[in-house]
Amino acid sequence: MLLNKYLFVVGPTCAGKNDFAYELSKFFDIEIINADSIQVYKQLRILSNRPTDEELKIAPHHLYGHINNQEYSVNHWISEVQKVLENISNRGKIPVFVGGTGFYIQALIEGLSQTPEINQKSKQQAEDLFYSKGTDYCLDILEKYYKEKIFPKDKQRLINRLAFSLQYNDTLENNYGDKTPITPNPLVIQVTKPKKDLYELAESRFHKMVKNGAIEEVRALHESKKISKTLLKAHGLPELLAYVRRKESLDDAIYQGIQNTKRYIKRQFTWWNNQKFSSLNLRINHKKSFPKDSIENISIYLNK
Questions:
Q1: Cβ–Cβ < 8 Å for 23, 290
Q2: 45, 96, 139, 284: which has the highest count of C-beta atoms within 10 A?
Q3: What does pTM read for this prediction?
Q4: Pairing outcome for strands 7-10 and 187-192
């Protein structure tokens, strides 16, 4: 039984992560675990580019399309992953994480700091202040707690820090606990392609998703009246919602969806290039031909 061996197939959108994992299944007895924060949702099979029915037959898949339209966090995911890993280990199989949500993958490999829980009252208070008073007002409050000026690169992180400070009269960072890695010493395989190729693939994929029913998925979500904040982060969803709600033409919605996806790929490309979670890393430009030397390197890692 292979204990404490973890493979990660990561990289930017459209790099070919799933295809690489399916090639791995020809050489190793693997089970695939989703590491994409949007592919957990059952409502967006097409728009999130979840594995097809045929692909699901290649190897066992876990944590795909099992969450309804509700809030879902990295903590939820890690809790589910731990149960899946135990079952895979009991079967003597090799777990392979496939996805591009960097925060999820980083949290799994490095561990998450445990912090005191923020209650709903403080969360609501922080949200109300943010949306009624604005960013600058919230930053003025936070400057009472933080020695250095905070720049709101991420709206949700700003709101979380504000909520924590309002409740505990302290900074979130002062209350970080120790990190315990859940998948220590993994082999991280970064699958990539030239940025220009990724952009072209993203454009053709978006058109294909629209043709295959993405608008119908979005319309069904719109009719449900309330869409979770986590789900709204799906690339292409806000733009196609604007079309469904008759605020934009279809051509404009598709154009904006493609442009925003390309911007996301650019950020991913830079982020993954700067990451090294593990001392064991492979970087592979995956084309149609499968790199045979990667099999040798993976075998060496698994048999150590």
A1: yes
A2: 96
A3: 0.84
A4: parallel
